[in-house]
Known about the structure:
Blueprint: H1 10-16, H2 24-54, H3 57-78, H4 88-93, E1 100-101, E2 104-105, H5 121-135, H6 142-149, H7 151-157, E3 177-178, H8 184-192, H9 194-205, E4 217-220, E5 227-234, E6 237-238, H10 240-245, H11 247-255, E7 268-273, E8 278-282, E9 289-297, E10 302-306, E11 309-311, E12 318-321, E13 327-331, E14 340-348, H12 354-363
Helix pairs in contact: 5-6, 5-12
Amino acid sequence: MVCMPLGLPRTDQLTSLRIPNSSPKMSLEWLVAWSWSLDGLRDCIATGMQSVRDCDTTAAVTVACLLVLFVWYCYHVGREQPRPYVSVNALMQGPDATGLQNGFVYCQSPECVRCSHSEGLNQKLYHNLQEYAKRYSWSGMGRIHKGIREQGRYLSSRPSIQKPEVFFLPDLPTSPYFARDAQKHDVELLERNFQTILCEFEALYKAFSNCSLPQGWKMNSTPSGEWVTFYLVNQGVCVPRNCRKCPRTYRLLGSLRTCIGNNVFGNACISVLSPGTVITEHYGPTNIRLRCHLGLKTPSGCELVVGGEPQCWAEGRCLLFDDSFLHAAFHEGSAEDGPRVVFMVDLWHPNVAAAERQALDFIFAPGR
Length: 368
């Protein structure tokens, strides 16, 4: 306990201080050090207050406003994060998604913007855009707004060589084929993992027989031959049963920077053409994506024609094209040549900005 007799001078007060188990000399040194530390703290506070007074008021208010806006933006963006890929371990343990038949996602809703071509589609898209802008911002939405507002005119007046069936984003550079550098990172990553994808395909293909289609494969309509696909992601929806059979390929999708995985225009699958197959000319649904084909098995006599320009696949190499152009595929080889096999994945068009990608994921979310 500290004893402080009232009415004594300061020097007498100091000498009267007593701290248990301490000598008078030590008590005096302790008090002096304590007094010095208080003086230092007072000086520090005074210096800080003077610095605030000297600061330009306008600059301080501007910084404070920017900080508040940044916190507000982070809060609103954080309220609805983009849907990430499900981990492979979760797929191994989780139940199959609803609406799966034979491992393939079939659209069950007449309201699906990917499959419906009703007159109310543009109104539905505009409603989705308004809802997105209310949650986030109109900033960077000019091109999407223009595209939705004039969608009917764009789709009806497009030249026959390029006519997407669902959504056309204006002012995007157009070309039937794109150079590998358009999505260099993802192209190189896919090509480095060529053997991994090929091995998982070969394990799947062993289940084929002449009498039945193995579970998980889908037969597509063609005028001649056979075209089957094995989807890991179909119209933005993961197919868990199929992903469990190709875990390393599915993990690879999560490493791609520009893979479309959160809206109805995103697909990833293994595509197999048997000899004698012809895929007739058709258009894709949109110009916001590039379709990437990684050649797994490419016998002679196989050809892809996009916008009237023919190209051939090569094993271990990626081919990028805009499938909103009129395109067709052929396998004119013999039975001895075997099937043509590619791994197909949809990537973002390189000129679709990040803000536009987030908005399009929201507007064309599966089931919306």
